UniProtKB/TrEMBL annotation:
Signal peptide (UniProt feature, chain positions): 1-21
Keyword rRNA processing: no
InterPro entries: DUF3472, DUF5077
UniProt keywords, alphabetically: Signal
Domain DUF5077: 48-165
Organism of derivation: Pedobacter cryoconitis
Name under which the protein is recorded: DUF5077 domain-containing protein
Length: 449
């Protein structure tokens, strides 16, 4: 039968000959041809690399790095590995692992099924676990937990190896680490609402209005609920920690770089003004430019409004972008106004997105509702936006993660990602929400701060 080898981890081996502590940054080393042959001799099988498909719940030093699970000492630590199959059936499970010294006993579980196994090999090898019955198609989670050990460490685990009827090339998981996909895969798929702006106004939009309501319990740390995205920037709310939340407005420089220090002076984003208590500066790593944020304790279950303006100046070839934020029971607050050089455009390419920026939280679900979208042209005419196209990022488009959702929820659009839910929504679909049936929001633009 055709042998399936779909994990970058099959190409690397970390060799250990003592009981030294496993390093989170321990380098990959190439296996010998005989080791590779032994590893893939029977099939079909797939090696699910923990480096891109696992999370560890721990209060001690266990970590998931590109090589897999390391520093495994605590029997209370639970490492969860996820993958999706399109058919049910019996799956045979093995682990590719090593034990620095001594003997280790551990259990592998899914649902109510649990099997105990042992290992004592001091170099990476396959360790048989047993057979599990996968009763439905969709995502499956396997948990790995230590029971007892005679050495200092339970071991290092690089791959969960699966074979059996459900194991075909349709299995979904993060298959490689090209372009840091283990990192992006553990963050989870990003999903987008791409708004359909009517042709009559799409080149003449001065203002864009949108609302976000995050359902209670759908706001884990690392979430970015972006409301007003456009060709040159984005504006939304984040969960930065257990104690801090932000309203964030960022604008990319026209100079393409991930390092803001390399931007020439004539391509830098210039701050025009900012609101009270708003912090401003530069950002990098995902493009570079100007950034502003307000530390603000926004709350799930409440509705917040976002308003963005673009003012191009053809004479100077510069455009000023300004964003405002408002809670349902409050007044408009200025976040910031930035000037972007080498730019002469109105608001175009309007979109929203939902992403997770904390890789340790990529196995937790998040969701947001996006409602009451309006585009306002230069003559002050309001047009309600009721159409969108649902899209995703590289991880979603490759099918490495299929826990994606988007569409219509009543008279709102919604986005959903993370958590390995199985009722995915296919990407690249068009959706239309019902019009609100109400008048547009009342805003006195002359009184905005």
């Amino acid at each position: 039968m055709k042998t399936i080898i779909l994990s970058l981890s099959l190409l690397s081996l970390v060799i250990a000959t003592s009981c030294k502590k496993s390093s989170p940054n321990e380098g990959d080393q190439t296996k010998t041809p005989q080791e590779i042959n032994d590893f893939v001799a029977t099939g079909p099988k797939i090696a699910i690399a923990l480096g891109g498909n696992a999370w560890v719940k721990t209060t001690s030093g266990e970590v998931i790095n590109n090589n897999g699970l390391a520093n495994w000492t605590n029997s209370a630590a639970v490492t969860s590995v996820y993958f999706r199959t399109e058919t049910p059936g019996i799956i045979t499970v093995k682990l590719r692992m090593k034990v620095p010294s001594g003997n280790s006993s551990f259990k592998v579980s899914t649902g109510t099924q649990s099997i105990t196994a042992t290992a004592s090999n001091t170099s990476f090898d396959t360790v048989a676990v047993g057979n599990f019955n996968i009763t439905t198609k969709g995502y499956t989670r396997f948990d790995i937990q230590g029971i007892s050990k005679t050495g200092n460490y339970f071991g290092d685990v690089s791959d969960l190896i699966i074979s059996g009827k459900p194991v075909t090339d349709s299995v979904s998981y993060v298959k490689d680490n090209i372009d840091s996909r283990f990192y992006w895969g553990r963050r989870g798929p990003s999903v987008h609402v791409n708004y359909v702006i009517p042709d009559a106004i799409k080149n003449n939009v001065e203002w864009f209005y949108n609302e976000i309501n995050v359902p209670v319990g759908s706001d884990p740390i690392g979430s970015y609920f972006m409301s007003n995205g456009f060709g040159e920037g984005y504006f939304g709310i984040q969960v930065n920690s257990a104690t801090e939340r932000r309203v964030l407005f960022s604008l990319w420089s026209p100079f393409p770089t991930d390092d803001p220090a390399t931007i020439p002076d004539d391509k830098k984003i210039r701050l025009i003004k900012k609101g009270t208590a708003v912090q401003s500066g530069e950002f990098g790593n995902e493009g570079s430019g100007g950034q502003s944020y307000l530390v603000y304790p926004w709350v799930a279950g409440k509705t917040y409004a976002f308003l963005t303006r673009a003012q191009p100046d053809a004479a100077t070839n510069k455009t000023i972008y300004t964003s405002y934020f408002k809670p349902a029971d409050g007044n408009w607050t200025l976040i910031a106004s930035f000037e972007r050089p080498a730019t002469n455009t109105r608001l175009k390419g309007m979109y929203s997105f939902l992403e997770n920026f904390n890789a340790e939280m990529g196995n937790i679900e998040r969701k947001a509702n996006y409602a009451n979208q309006w585009a306002i042209d230069t003559q002050g005419n309001w047009t309600e936006i009721t159409g969108m196209k649902f899209t995703g990022d590289d991880i979603a488009n490759r099918g490495y993660r299929k826990d994606v959702g988007g569409g219509v929820n009543g008279n709102q659009f919604f986005l959903r990602n993370g958590g390995f839910f199985s009722d995915a929504v296919a990407l690249k679909q068009n959706f239309n929400r019902p019009a609100s049936g109400a008048a547009h929001p009342v805003i006195d633009f002359t009184q905005l701060p």
